[in-house]
């Protein structure tokens, strides 16, 4: 089935261009558009999209506040930030608000299609610029190697297996891919993921990834 996408951007020329692009991508159905955060909230309630492609800097209600409200009121709608800016404040604010992905507008058609499918599947996607800023702001050196989960005291009572799975989530692997990597069932992975969320206080995979980088459990 196609992924239902709502497009949110305050610039008409950008909306029209992205609408044309999305219409050409296989597996994506553009169900509507909005020009600010307030319209986005109304459109999500009415159209029930799978993914909201969200600009960040808009009048009336910006994309950060709109993302925060959408995550609270419509948690099944994944927000993928698509913006001109990749500064530290924008990237971190979007992720903290609950965005599941972050792309800049110089992304190609294949990048956008892949990102839409990824966040619709419950995974996280960051373009290289956004990922670099997350890592830097969490104080992880580019060449640093996090201590092995088996040789360090783990935070928040995580088990070694949970820490291992958290690291794989940070790599962008789905539950099915983790199950294949670890030779366990997908149901077992899902149970571990639920435990990870409960112990770390993460609401979704995006917050779990941020936690993994903050605590040094993410691969570098």
List keywords for this structure.
six-stranded parallel sheet, 220 residues, globular, Rossmann fold
The domain tally reads 2
Strand content: 5-15%
Structural class: alpha/beta
Spatial strand sequence of the major β-sheet: 2-1-3-4-5-6
Shape: globular
| CATH class category label of the largest domain | Alpha Beta
Find the CATH superfamily of the largest domain.
Response regulator
Residues in helices, as a percent range: 40-55%
Order of helices and strands: EHEHEHEHEHEHHHHH
Radius of gyration: 17 Å
Poorly predicted parts: 140-151
Characterise this structure.
This protein is α/β, with parallel strands linked by helices and 220 residues long. The chain has two domains: 3-136, Response regulator (Rossmann fold), CATH 3.40.50.2300; 140-214, Arc Repressor Mutant, subunit A (Orthogonal Bundle). The protein contains ten helices and six strands. It has helices at residues 12-24, 37-47, 63-73, 88-97, 109-120, 128-137, 160-170, 175-182, 186-200, 205-214, and strands at residues 3-8, 28-34, 51-54, 78-83, 101-104, 125-126. Strands 2-1-3-4-5-6 form a six-stranded parallel beta sheet, sandwiched between helices. Helix 3 packs parallel to helix 4.
Present the secondary structure layout:
Layout: E1 3-8, H1 12-24, E2 28-34, H2 37-47, E3 51-54, H3 63-73, E4 78-83, H4 88-97, E5 101-104, H5 109-120, E6 125-126, H6 128-137, H7 160-170, H8 175-182, H9 186-200, H10 205-214
Parallel strand pairs: 1-2, 1-3, 3-4, 4-5, 5-6
Helix pairs in contact: 2-3, 3-4, 7-9, 7-10, 8-9
């Amino acid at each position: 089935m196609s992924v239902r996408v709502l497009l949110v951007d305050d610039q008409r020329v950008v909306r029209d261009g992205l609408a044309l692009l999305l219409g050409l991508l296989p597996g994506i159905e553009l169900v509507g558009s909005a020009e600010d955060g307030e319209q986005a909230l109304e459109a999500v309630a009415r159209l029930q999209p799978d993914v909201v492609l969200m600009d960040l800097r808009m009048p009336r209600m910006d994309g950060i506040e709109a993302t925060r409200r959408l995550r609270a009121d419509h948690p099944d709608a994944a927000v993928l930030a698509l913006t001109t800016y990749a500064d530290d404040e924008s990237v971190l604010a979007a992720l903290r608000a609950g965005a599941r992905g972050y792309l800049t507008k110089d992304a190609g058609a294949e990048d956008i299609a892949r990102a839409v499918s990824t966040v619709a599947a419950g995974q996280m996607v960051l373009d290289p610029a956004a990922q670099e800023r997350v890592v830097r702001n969490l104080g992880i050196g580019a060449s640093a190697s996090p201590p092995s989960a088996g040789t360090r005291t783990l935070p928040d009572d995580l088990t070694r297996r949970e820490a291992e799975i958290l690291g794989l989530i940070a790599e962008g692997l789905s539950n099915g891919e983790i199950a294949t990597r670890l030779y366990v069932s997908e149901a077992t992975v899902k149970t571990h993921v639920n435990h990870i969320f409960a112990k770390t206080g993460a609401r979704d995979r995006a917050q779990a990834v941020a936690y993994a980088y903050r605590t040094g459990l993410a691969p570098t």
